[in-house]
Amino acid sequence: MTEPRTELSGIASLLSLEVDYVAEWQFYLAQFNSNYAYCLAQLFGDDGPNIMLNYEGGYYNLQTYASHHVSFAGDMMDNLNKWVTWSYKFKISPVNGYVIVFRNGIEMARMVGNTARGNYIYFKLGMYSQNHPQDTV
User: Fold this and answer.
1) From CA 130, how far away is CA 70, in angstroms rounded?
2) Phi, psi of 78 (to 5 degrees)
3) Contact 113, 66 (CB under 8 A)
4) pLDDT tens string 40-99
5) Using an 8 Å Cβ cutoff, are 127 and 38 in contact?
6) CA-CA distances (angstroms) from residue 83 to 33, 40, 59, 76, 122?
7) Confidence class for position 132, pLDDT limits 50, 70, 90
8) Residue 130 has what pLDDT?
């Protein structure tokens, strides 16, 4: 499995605190290994992820560095062999932040509160594995 990913760190100066943003991307999943944990997208700050969307063990997880965490059920197999559109609506803020995740235009998760982690903010996009597969027999 390849792990195509891009990091849009060159536009970091365009991502500011207290501004409403929308980020949208599509991916086509040709294969899937259920023994992996996958990260789909991250917004990074000075010292780690502000907001991360990942998939592991039959659940998508939306989390912020401030320990907000929302899990929602889903089957990664539903993404196989078709184009899927994901989007974030978000605001990076230590007080008024939010992130709303959509899959094919349907709201999947929402959280509000502290989404800030520093002033240097960049976007990592593209599904990649976060661990090695477990031994299977």
Assistant:
1) 18
2) -65, -15
3) yes
4) 888 777 766 678 888 888 889 998 877 678 888 888 888 889 999 999 899 988 888 899
5) yes
6) 18, 14, 20, 13, 25
7) low
8) 64
Determine the Cα–Cα distance for residues 51 and 13; give it in Å rounded to an integer: 18
SS (H, E, C) 44-105: EECCEEEEEEEEECCEEEEEECCCCEEEEECCHHHHECCEEEEEEEEECCCCCEEEEEEECC
In 3D space, the residue among 3, 7, 5, 4 whose CA is nearest the CA of residue 121 turns out to be: 7
* Mean pLDDT (whole number) for 16-41: 85
Give Cα 16 to chain centroid, integer Å: 18
How remote is the C-alpha of 87 from its chain's centroid?
9
Check residue 48 and give its pLDDT. Answer: 67
